[in-house]
Amino acid sequence: MVIPPFYLLVILCHNQQTAVLGLTEDHRLPLKDWAMEEYRDLDTEREKLFHSLRKKIGDERIVEAMDRVPRELFIPSASRYMAYNDAPLPIEMGQTISQPFIVALMTEALELTGQERVLEVGTGSGYQAAILAELAKWVVGVERHPQLIDIARRTLERLGYTNIEIHLAGKTLGWKDGAPYDGIIVTAGAPKVPQELVDQLAPGGRLVIPVGSRYEQQLLKLTKRNGELVKQNLGGCRFVPLIAEDAWDEGEQQSSSRFS
Ligand code: SAH
Questions:
Q1: How is the chain split into domains, by residue range?
Q2: What per-residue confidence (pLDDT) applies to 25?
Q3: 208-249 pLDDT, tens digit each
Q4: d(CA 200, CA 109)
Q5: What distance in Å separates the CA atoms of residue 157 and residue 51, rounded to the nearest whole number?
Q6: Dist CA 16 CA 24 (whole Å)
Q7: Residue 98 falls in the annotated catalytic set
């Protein structure tokens, strides 16, 4: 097959960009620098996404907060043209940035008013943390990949967030030193509700967590009332596994594209 010179140039640029993906300085380049830009109209896709989220999510503040956070800056350049698809997308270290609808649903379940301290277990790209920072007073993130922490910190700093701290995950799930939290959101799937996280939840606090098998979970909202947990099931979902002593072991590598 003969490839016309223009297409060849695009393919070469694409490959070059893909090769330096991962953990280099330029993987969060502004959209202008990316050749795919001219083929997709992100603004139109963005409008479509938020229109559909407004129909599904009752609390308008959540959708407004999400509308203020540029999702494309949390995604490796190669898939940025899909930033406003309502779909999970791969990020570095074989992990995923969650589907916008799931981000909205989980955030809504935290019932934030602006005064809360919130813990996010599984900070990944930092996208969910940014949305929490728009709606809560203080966000504590925990992530087990130092490389992701580095990338997330840089993205969040670039966007001007000053109410987020991110820590490297230790042996205990969550971040005990910052407890108690009014809200805890776990963005990786667990085999059961981890007691370590329940202990870090303030009275009246909400814990939102996917619980189930390694491949499929139910999204649970647990509210701590009088020392007991009141459970609500928000529906089925698919997250990458929560890796911890009290959860899954590292095991086989999964293809991330199936997960939220
Ligand atoms: N919320 C993220 C996406 C999370 S993907 C975003 O908005 O981009 C799930 C993340 O959980 C992965 O980055 C994975 O490394 C992390 N993770 C898995 N087990 C963990 C644990 N025990 N503590 C902290 N992070 C964990």
A1: 5-22+35-258
A2: 45
A3: 999 999 999 999 999 999 989 999 999 999 999 999 998 999
A4: 18
A5: 28
A6: 13
A7: yes
